[in-house]
Structure prediction request, 297 residues.
Amino acid sequence: MALRFDAGEVITAMVTPFNRKREIDYNKSEELAGNLINNGSDTILVAGTTGEGPTLTHEEEFELLSSVKRAVANRAKIIMNAGSNSTQTAIMAAKWAQKEEVDAILSVVPYYNKPSQQGMIEHFSAVAECTTLPIILYNIPGRTGVNMLPETVAHLAEKYQNIVGVKQSCSDMDAVTEMKLLCPEDFTIYSGDDSLTLPMMALGARGVISVASHIFGSEIKSMIRNYKTGEFLAALNMHKKLYPAFKKLFMAPNPVPVKAVLAHKGLIEEYVRRPLTELSDKDKADLIKVIEKVRKN
Prediction:
């Protein structure tokens, strides 16, 4: 079955490297994007939550996208975060992303406003009608304060051919099943939580929009491939191996922990922008201990 849009199995929601002054380090951005592509990532998501998109200016987003494009050089797809709790802002972001010729956009359920399901339909309809880019919906009730129901996803997927998939960041497995029952067959579901990748794939998900792939990209790719080729025990064993890291990488608000690990590896500096704060030395040591133990297993 041909998909409406195929971003592959492992999409990495890339962190945005900052220097000591908390300015974007564009050289590190290029190096990191290249490293991700070489280690299991099929697609890079730019300026999402993990990329601290809410703290970036439009000028920074433009330069960041340019740096990732240079690094990717057609070796992987690029998805741009273009969501907002303002419908007009989301429309402008989608139009800008299309002008910049990204491969697709990620559009989140409007946060803070707590819209009804009809409000979500009208919001995403306006976005879908303003662009020809593929759109991946983003359902993350823990951050938005409201849950997008499977019926709403299905309505949008049926109505708009360019609404191609959903990033599902909640642990309701029944909702995944309901989306598979209600949505067109060429509509794609991605897990939005690393620890839920394998369970969601058992229900028909395509793969994951991942944070842990910064560290364990090849292992996550292997887990997915093993599952898809019928090596279920191997996939389960990899899931079990990575599970402590999946959970520990969310010991503090994302992307604080993953930046600490990347800094420990010498790939970036660990700085985050306020209102986020870096890990304490104690928490950092605890995190690195778990990550290194997982790596050695």
